[in-house]
Amino acid sequence: MNSPPDPTARPDTASVDLLWIPLGAGGVGFVRLNGRIYEAMRARRERRAPAPLHHTALVVHSDGSDHIVENAWPSPDGDLASRGVVIEGPVFSHRLSRFRMFRYEVRRWRDGVIADAAEAVGGPQRLTSDPETARRLLDLVPMVPPHVWGRDDLGVGEMWNSNSVVAWLLARSDLAPHRLVPPGGGIAPGWDAGVAGAGLITP
Length: 203
Prior knowledge:
The chain is an alpha+beta fold and 203 residues long.
């Protein structure tokens, strides 16, 4: 006799979910302060009111496991494998990156956690349920170019940061990041740099 299905069990389907997280959520005061200063200066230059800033991350379900894909700074310690780190990149300058405080990390973390995921505005946004797209995105994570965080190395008028990494991955996975808009009239600094860097939009 077969057992009845468990209503709490998650079907083994593929998915890519995008999280729009308020910048600095979870108590990252340094990041929050710098983000507010950046947005205040940019808003003044563009003659508009400051807008809410967002940091983005991805949750990719593939082959029976959830994978956290995000870009985090600073790197907290040298145990990179425990967080699924596949790339480290420089913050502000290559010279400073010899110090861990000035290195960021790109994570592809199987069964990992996003500390501030509960703060995501509107919850996860489902982008696709296609298994091949989910696998392709995960395969692309180690190929993200490690541009200097906080610098406009691409010459597109916007700095490279965590949002750039997510936008680059979505563009290379044909998930049309140029059509995605942050919720609540917010802004995702660095998003256009990632799209441009992926070649979807020529600078």
